[in-house]
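[Solved] Which block belongs to which protein?

Original post:
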Amino acid sequence: EAIRIGQPQSEPLKAFYETYGFKGLAKALGGDERSSPNPRPPVTKPGVKGSPANDLFSEAETALGDETPATPGASTLDYDTILTWDLFNTWLARVEAAGLVAVDTETTSLDEMRAEIVGISFSVKPGEAAYIPLRHAGPDAPEQLPFDEVLAKLKPWLENPARHKLGQHIKYDRHVFANHGIEVQGYVHDTMLQSYVLEVHKPHGLASLAERHLGRHGISYEDLCGKGAHQIPFAQVDVAKAAEYSCEDSDQTLDVHLALWPQLQADDKLKFIYELEIASSEALYRIERNGVLIDAPTLARQSHELGSRIHALEQQAYEIAGQPFNLSSPKQLGEIFFDKLGLPVIKKTATGARSTDEEVLEKLAEDYPLPAKILEHRGLSKLKGTYTDKLAQLAHPKTGRVHTHYAQAVAVTGRLSSNDPNLQNIPIRTPEGRKVREAFVAPAGSVIASADYSQIELRIMAHISGDAALLKAFHEGVDVHRATAAEVF
């Protein structure tokens, strides 16, 4: 009984976190929402149906800015699986009449530029949603409505900016629809961005949001598809289970919105920041969609040149060490550096091993040639493996361009992060790094223009603070950093 797992002791934990500077953990503990301000009542899950509910038509929700905040959630879940044109038309009429509709897609891939639709779900009212299976191909998959015809009928509503939509990570769904020739308009809310603005230190995934704000524990993707080598494609999932999963996603998205949107409305500054994030999502979607053109032959030439230099550095390192060795092995480096060559030990790892990390190499390189060769070898190898070898492989087969993904709700500082590939960390301090940038080119008849704000942080600070010295420096066009230093020293 003494070792039974119970509820954490919040007060001692919070005191410990605050004492030792664990600010994120302290904030998360302080915001523990086991007692959600908008708890969802317990729900009874009926079977996912293939026929319309008794009461399909209801008052349409009002549009953005005029929504009446409601307690999210419903006492029962009423989910439809759309397998007939009659039910499709009923739901299409309902979606077209609604002021705000949560939309979710189920796809073949997390790569938004390559993902294809397997099914689509909608929710127009808490507890009520519908799923359209389109490309399920499991052994027991029922006959489904024709893919192209369904999208053709949905397209006018999806592309109508006057029909307001919301989603969880709307940028992804916009890409998915665009892959099928549909440019979705009218996305006015994104629950991921709402959470990011309101609670930046907390997770922003839908499962976390539903648990935190609604007290709901939904079906996980792993529950449906499995894990690792045994994971099956979503198209192989049983339609009834897929429908419940997807309807739950769109239903929870609507519920989370109804919980978070009133909080944003109540704070003008946060609401303004959220509106900026929504506008940024639109711009980022277009940037990602457009991609950047790369010159594959230039990258291939650079890879060959880097390979030759890397090989030469290896031979030079062997000559200095007096033997061949693995330049990437910390153990072998330690033996060569400290046992054979007698280099000083700068620091040790947590396990007591002699460190050969970058900081140590930089220090040793000031006085010894071998660490300098190792550093140069590492830098060139990273450049080759990360960029010159891989960028061409990451080009989209249809566009010939690299389409990076900008994560909008990751960094707590508000900065974007770029991945697949990361285009923010291409080295610029070395000639080799600058050469990689030569492979990013403009199409014939166009040019690449680069622009940056001039001392934007200082200008904002001067505007907000009204500091006389800063304002004077900007108005007179003097070096602001020098003027600031003169004031201080």
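(Second protein starts here: sequence line, then its structure tokens.)
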Amino acid sequence: MRILIADDETLVRYGLVSVLQDLLPQSTEIIEAGSGVELVEKTREYHPHIAFVDI
């Protein structure tokens, strides 16, 4: 499974990544985006199954 986390607040993004890494299997790929432009680029590149977006 691929999860995309998009948030312009770096600490919030890192916190969510940390929580998800603790809860989900190691096979889960977590992709991060820090801006709307990066969100679109990463979505096109990775085709995530789930996206958490706060931009």
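Accepted answer:
You had them paired correctly. Confirming on the second one: The chain has one domain: 2-54.
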